[in-house]
Amino acid sequence: MPHTLTLLFILMVIALVATWLIPQGSFETEEGTDIVIAETYEVHEERELLSPLDLFTAIPRAFADAQGIIFFLFIIGGVLAIIRHTGTIDALLGRLLSNLGGRPGVLIFAVVFVFALASSIMGASAEYVPFVLILVALCREMKMDTMTAVGVIVAGYGIGYGTAAFNQYTVIVAQEVAGIPTYSGWPLRIGILLPFVMIGAHHIWSYSKKVQADPTKSLMQGIEPPEGAEPPDKYPELTWKHIVITLSFFVALGIAVYGIAQHGWYLTELGAAFLILGIVTAAIGKIGPSLTAQKFISGAKDLIETALLVGVARGIALIMEDGQILHTIVHVMSIPLSTVGPEVAGVGMMVMQSVLNLFIPSGSGQAFVTMPLMAPLGDIIGVSRQIAVQAFLFGDGFGNMIVPTNAVLMGILGMAGVPYDRWFRFCWPLILKLLGAAAIVMVGAVVFGYS
Question: Domain range for residue 304?
Answer without folding.
Answer: 4-39+51-447
